[in-house]
Amino acid sequence: MQLYNDTSLDADTFFEQTAELSYQFYVTDSEGNGTFYGAPFRDQTLSSKAIEKVLGGTTYHGMANYPGQTFVTGFFSNELTNSIGVPVEINGEKHALFMRPNIEQQFNEIHILLAVLLVFTILLSMVLVLFSTRYIVKPIKDLTGATEKIAGGEYSIELKQNRKDEIGILARSFTSMSRQLEQVENMRQEFVSNVSHEIRTPLSSIKGYAKLLRSSSPSPEERDNYLQVIESESIRLSKLSRQLLTLAALDKDENITKSEPFTVAPILQNLLQQTRWLWESKGIAINLVASEVTYNGNEELLYQAFENLLTNSIKYTSAGGEISMTLREHQDGLRFTIQDNGNGISLEHQEKVFDRFYKVDTSRSQEKDSSGLGLSIVKKIITLHGGEIIVESELHKGSTFTVMLP
Ligand code: ADP
């Protein structure tokens, strides 16, 4: 009422304008001449007693006393009884003013606000979806595409790796995995082509000589020569298949299944006996110095490793040469060395001799009996025992292979 008293507007204009601010008014005098301002009341009944009270100077609290319902309070009911009545003086005459906020109109305004908020939320969600699609879904799609490529045998994949989060880490791991797979695939292909190459040569020899035997009528001497070639090539083939099987078994079984303590010296002596015909026929002298040490490992595999090293030394040492083998216990374990004064290996080849199928000089006659697998088998066996093998050699002077077993 303070507002009305302060304004210079006439009562009608004042109430009309104030009603526009979402209010409903009912102004009445003592004779019952009443006027409504703002949106109409749904129910305009009001007891004359209430009007009289207000005219008498008491405030009417219709809103506070209006009976509420379970979910909706009386506040929302658009009835004249649900209002507040105050006495007001207009043009010096007593009037009763009943008013209540126009909730519907106010709600409409809230609706608009809610609608704006809703539109804003939808727009924001769309932006977020677009962002997440670009930022999360796209890299995952790229990864899926890359997996499909790898499954199809294509390993050259390019993924964006500059992100620092988990997706970046995944992309980096994936790229490194694909590089490794590519390497494995290349190695596999190389292995297959090496195997086929190693098989093809003896097979074509066998085929050729068998054909000669059948088609020509060779002299007994020629016949013997042909049969000798066929025999040696068959031996070579069976040796190759044995070596391949050994390598496959060693690759498959990373744990040495049979690990037992055994004395090493007797197996070296045994090895010398087994190969006696080989080195004696070449006039090679072998010297063995072995301490009586016990080692916990796979005896069978280590015998094979020592055998490969010894047969190599015999193979690559000229007639009349010397080989010396020593076996000693050191602080860090067992040390076996085999030294020969044979061909020797030049520095550039030394690091590669342990690679599968690596032969220093394929044209050399003694390497006809060679597959390039012997030293790779030795290395594998020694590594499986947690040991190490190194070669020191000088061309035309000789080689020393040292095996360290922890
Ligand atoms: P292979 O099964 O043909 O003997 P290896 O893997 O044992 O093949 O040896 C690889 C190559 O290392 C051989 O081709 C040979 O040239 C060289 N090599 C190995 N041992 C010796 C050695 N004691 N003296 C000289 N060269 C050797």
UniProtKB/TrEMBL annotation:
It catalyses: ATP + protein L-histidine = ADP + protein N-phospho-L-histidine. InterPro entries: HAMP_dom, HATPase_C_sf, HATPase_dom, His_kinase_dom, HisK_dim/P_dom, HisK_dim/P_sf, HssS/ArlS-like, Sig_transdc_His_kin-like_C. It comes from the Bacteria. This is Heme sensor protein HssS. Member of the two-component regulatory system HssS/HssR involved in intracellular heme homeostasis and tempering of staphylococcal virulence. HssS functions as a heme sensor histidine kinase which is autophosphorylated at a histidine residue and transfers its phosphate group to an aspartate residue of HssR. HssR/HssS activates the expression of hrtAB, an efflux pump, in response to extracellular heme, hemin, hemoglobin or blood. Its main location: membrane. It comes from Halobacillus shinanisalinarum. GO terms for molecular function: kinase activity. It is found in: Cell membrane. Keywords: ATP-binding, Cell membrane, Kinase, Membrane, Nucleotide-binding, Phosphoprotein, Transferase, Transmembrane, Transmembrane helix, Two-component regulatory system, Virulence. Residues 134-186 form the HAMP domain. The lineage of its organism: Bacteria, Bacillati, Bacillota, Bacilli, Bacillales.
